[in-house]
Write a structure and sequence with these properties.
Strand content: 15-25%
Order of helices and strands: HHHHEEHEEHEEHEHE
Distance between the termini: 13 Å
Number of helices: 8
Helix content: 40-55%
Structural class: alpha+beta
Radius of gyration: 18 Å
Oligomer: single chain
Strand order of the largest sheet: 3-1-2-8
Number of strands: 8
Length: 241
């Protein structure tokens, strides 16, 4: 997994994300609602537990989480969201996956296409870039105030079932197989570690540099996609993303 580090980009975008916290919670509520339709008990609904844990990592209030679960349990109006992933290329040929939850396919398709086209990108066919990514667990632990060295932590993570660990002065980044994610996360949590990020993600097999002169355009495209209410996640194979 060397070279796939996302942490510097997460740091760089954190302040902007903090300013959009209400929108983040809104998107998580939608994700919780969809997962909870298969059952409101997190002890028997693994998908719901994953998204609730994800919400807690970003400090989503328990009342918001409960409200989304209760809404799914009492959903008599037939509210429904389709899960659609769009694939395409950003400026400079960077591969992009856009995961959405939508109650209006036409609206979402139009908005995603405009975000690509107005910023030097283009949508592709289904399967055009998905093969470049692997579904992985991704956990970030900040090193500030941690009294553990790299070798000790790496041994703990690998023993817990992690595939790989990337280290920097600021953080440990832990990668797992999707099937091992929950076990690794639980083991590290029980060992006393707090997470900045803990989620299932799409990790690129190979990361590419954004061509010189294309970075600003690329970031405008990513911002336009992330600002869309129907877009849950955006994944790219750009270095640092």
């Amino acid at each position: 997994m060397a070279g796939h580090s996302k942490w510097k980009n997460i740091q760089g975008r954190k302040n902007a994300q903090d300013s959009k916290r209400a929108k983040v919670f809104q998107k998580l509520a939608k994700e919780i609602f969809v997962a909870a339709k298969a059952g409101a008990d997190i002890s028997t609904n693994a998908a719901l537990r994953l998204v609730v844990d994800k919400a807690k990592v970003v400090n989503m209030p328990n009342d918001n989480i409960k409200r989304a679960i209760d809404k799914a349990a009492g959903n008599t109006a037939g509210e429904h969201y389709d899960e659609i992933t769009y694939e395409g290329y950003g400026p400079g040929g960077i591969a992009v996956l856009v995961h959405t939850l939508t109650d209006n396919r036409n609206r979402t398709s139009t908005n995603v296409r405009v975000a690509f086209n107005k910023n030097g990108g283009s949508l592709g066919e289904t399967g055009s870039v998905a093969y470049m990514f692997d579904r992985k667990g991704y956990i970030v632990i900040e090193r500030a105030d941690l009294e553990v060295d790299e070798d000790t932590f790496m041994l703990e993570a690998i023993e817990a079932g992690a595939d790989d660990v990337e280290t920097s002065e600021e953080a440990f980044e832990v990668y797992t197989e999707a099937s091992a994610f929950t076990d690794v996360k639980d083991a590290l949590s029980e060992a006393g570690y707090a997470f900045v990020t803990a989620e299932l993600s799409m990790i690129p097999q190979v990361s590419n540099d954004i061509p010189e002169g294309k970075k600003e355009q690329f970031e405008r495209m990513i911002d336009a996609l992330e600002d869309d209410d129907d877009v849950q996640e955006v994944y790219t194979n750009a270095v640092g993303y």
